[in-house]
Amino acid sequence: MAAKAGDNPDSLMALSTAFCLRNLRRTMCYLGDGNKLCLRSDVFLPSEICDKLVNTYMELVHSDSNFEPQDGFFQLFSDPRSTRLTRVQLREDLVRDRDLEAIWKQDLIELHLTYCNSLSARSLKTLASFRQTLVSLSLFGCSHIFYRKGGAPLACNEDDEEEEEQQRPASRQALDTDFSFQGFNRLRLLNLGGLPEEVDPEALLKPLPALTSLDLSGVQLPRAAFLAQWKERLASLVLYNVDLSEELVNTVVELGHLRHLDISRERTSKFKMTRKILTAIVQGLVNLVSLDISGHIMLDNCTVPHLEEAMGRPSIEPCKSSIYPFQELKRPLQFLGLYNTTLCNVTHIPAYKVTGSKNEDQVLNAIEAYTEFRPELAHRAINQLFDIARIQHCSQLLRALQLVIAALKCHKYEKSVQVTGSAALFYLTNTEYRSDQSMRLRRQVIQVVLNGMEQYQEVTVQRNCCLTLCNFSIPEELEFQYGRVNLLLLKILEPARQDESIQRIAVHLCNALVCQVDNHHKEAVGKMGFVKTMLNLIQKKLQDRMCDQVMEFSWSALWNITDETPDNCQMFLNCRGMSLFLDCLKEFPDKQELHRNMLGLLGNVAEVRALRPQLLTPQFISVFSDLLDSKADGIEVSYNACGVLSHIVFDGPEAWGMEEPLRDTVMDKMMAAIQSWDVTSRRNINYRSFEPILRLLPQSIAPVSQHWATWALFNLVSVYPSKYCPLLVKEGGIVLLEKVLELQTSHEETKDMARKVMEQCENFKEDPMETAR
User: Fold this and answer.
1) Where do the Protein zer-1 homolog-like C-terminal domain residues begin and end (predicted)?
2) Can you list the positions of beta strands (E) in 263-350?
3) What is the spatial distance between Cα 497 and Cα 149, in angstroms, rounded to a whole number?
4) What are phi and psi of 348, to 5 degrees?
5) Residues 6 or more apart from 41 whose CB is under 8 A from it?
6) Which residue in 584, 511, 582 sits closest to 547, CA to CA?
7) Tens digit of pLDDT for each residue in 18-50?
8) Measured between alpha carbons, how far is 452 from 408 in angstroms, rounded to an integer?
9) Residue 274 backbone phi and psi in degrees, to 5
10) Mutual orientation of helices 618-627 and 577-587 as an angle, nearest 10°?
11) DSSP string covering 341-374, please?
């Protein structure tokens, strides 16, 4: 049998790293003075392990809500004699100046900082300590790193300073003019994407004559000629969202060693791409293997007329190119960015990988290429993937899922990505694609969906996430995140007036989650406020005089969560559950499904001996007694009402303690109801255990309770033998039925049914077809 998509297990290195990070004090560390996290003296870690620890730590912080950031974590890597760091990737606001300062003694070769907006010019000083060894540096989106922190020179401690910094507008921060790349002699790759306007890129970059890769995304270049200083060295230049000019294009064309050029854009621009410019780029940059011109409007026609195009299947040979300037390429490009241009729609494109919106392949290439640094483009491409999955068919399912998961992880705080990504996941995980997905991959989907629900209270994200969860087998596939998913759903249902569709989906999920799970799960969810939340929803619906799916699902969820869990039954009674039961019965006398769910729940309450006295009031007994005559939902309402009364009368005449209605009268009515039911009725009920029924068998206090219990068993083993015969045998039911036959108080009718139940189980064992199941 072939492995399913995405089924490769994690490496031992990955598993060990994550385990150590989740258990620092049990593995590598101890708590020192002042509860400070310290590395054990016998721990010596090489760079391969240290790099993995730091980079996995950042990943866990951003993608796992159960993982708590450790104060002083970076201090563990302060001494190069015991820990060696060489390649570090840090992202988002969690990274502080003190974290970089903690590792200043390390000989870093690669340092990638992405959207680290909490870093100030203090970190530029730390960067200088890496100048002897640094080969690759990224400061992408670190807009505050070139500014000094303001405030009084003798300000308090760093935490106060950083808190104050968060509240201070950028305009009041002073630009740092002291930093220089002087001495960074080994630096070859530099990403300064998002460099503030006040910083002069020409002056900043002057001390770096040996650069081979430069990213100046979003940086304005009023004087472009300075780029020519790298014309003998530069192999990669990224000018995404840089305002192009004739001077800049002429300078770029002189950079003859360029292998990768990105002049794409997302913003509108006065500059228009022409056939002449594109030809100049192809002719001037003969070593080019990768080019991105996404987002450009073509001023004149660059494409071969449709009737003159080369015949045959789409080709990547330059001579057949449907785009004139690319016919001069010596070989096909490895990558060509044509996203948001008309050029992506032509037949022959001389590149192995193309971004665009013409087909699934181009769209997936766009998500892959733009996710990390260009969420504004990635979200558009994911939106197009959503349309493909919804209207057409996604043929590269594994790749599509992995890319969307990566985008959602990477841009947890980017609302546009969360909205489109969660919508795409709904269609990519539905029944059509399910058989191709591994458990591991589906768990990754669940993780990012829950991250989105946690981060955004916004209606669209919440609805998309809830709908996506409906594509999973519940509760089985959600069990590994059971507590977390329940908490999030209860939080959604908290507001007094929630979006109707979200409310309906969330209640449905809550109901499914507490159905068919172990009692300890139900008890844990009960403690989260599940019972109270459901009763609040019922209360609101009652006020609106509306019996809809939310009302019915809420009672169904209460029925499920109280099954064999006395604590939750107690909560139901404590939160005025019985009062709401009576109100619903009065307000909605004809709602059969509602009555069935309510009576099912009260059956669970009645099974708890300590709570039964609270049901023993003339009002409640009269209501249950009246419901014996109900024909709602087949026999279900009558059956459940009889079940409630069977447990109550089982406590004996002493416990009854009321004059009206009389216990004997109620018991006669129960017997009449049972005799009216069809024993072959198919049931809308699911027993995980017969224990509550079996305890009513060997007794003489209430023969009618014994009769109800025997009828229940006879019905279930007759209609569903393969499910209930083994359960009855396993739980010792046959021995108890034999005792029913021995009791003189048992009705003959009861004994007759007991024999038939035993016979049914015996026949089931003897039937080889049944045994083979």
Assistant:
1) 408-763
2) 290-292, 333-337
3) 44
4) -105, 110
5) none
6) 584
7) 999 999 999 999 998 888 899 999 999 999 999
8) 8
9) -120, 165
10) 50
11) SGGGGSS---EEEEESSSSHHHHHHHHHHHTTT-
